Amino acid sequence: MDDNAPPHGARIVPAGFQKVGVSHVVWPTMTSDLNPIEHVWDHLGRNTRRRCHALTAVNGENISFTHCE
C-alpha cells in the first residue's frame, strides 16, 4: 500500500513490486482514520500523559522535572 507520494511513484518501485510478486494497492492520501499508526500514537500519548507528572518551580527556582512511573 502506498499513498501516491512522489517516492512511491518512481518507475523502479512498481517494477520492484512486480519482480518480487507484491500486488499494489492504492491507499487514499491523508486518511488518518484509516492509518493504524495514528491510533497507536494516540493511545501511547494518552497513556504517557496519564502516567507522567510534571513538577515545576521546585524550591522557588524555575526548574522543570518530569517523573514517569
Summary keywords:
36% helix, 69 residues, alpha+beta, 2 domains, two-stranded antiparallel ribbon, elongated, single chain
Reported for the largest beta sheet, the result is:
2 strands, antiparallel
Helix tally equals 2
Number of domains: 2
Broad shape: elongated
What ranges have pLDDT less than 50 throughout 5 or more consecutive residues?
none
Mean pLDDT metric: 71
Rg over CA atoms, rounded to whole Å, is 22 Å
Report the β-strand fraction as a percent range.
5-15%
Number of strands: 2
> Roughly how much helix do the residues carry, as a percent range?
25-40%
Query: What is the ordering of alpha helices and beta strands?
Result: HHEE
**Classification by helices and strands:** alpha+beta
Strand order across the biggest sheet?
1-2
Q: What separation lies between the terminal Cα atoms?
A: 38 Å
Structure notes:
This protein has 69 residues and is an alpha+beta fold. The chain folds into two domains: 1-30, no CATH class; 32-69, no CATH class. The chain is built from two helices and two strands. The chain has helices at 12-20, 36-51; strands spanning 52-56, 64-68. This is Tc1-like transposase DDE domain-containing protein. One of its GO terms (molecular function) is nucleic acid binding.
Q: TL;DR?
A:
Helices cover 36% and strands 14% of the residues.
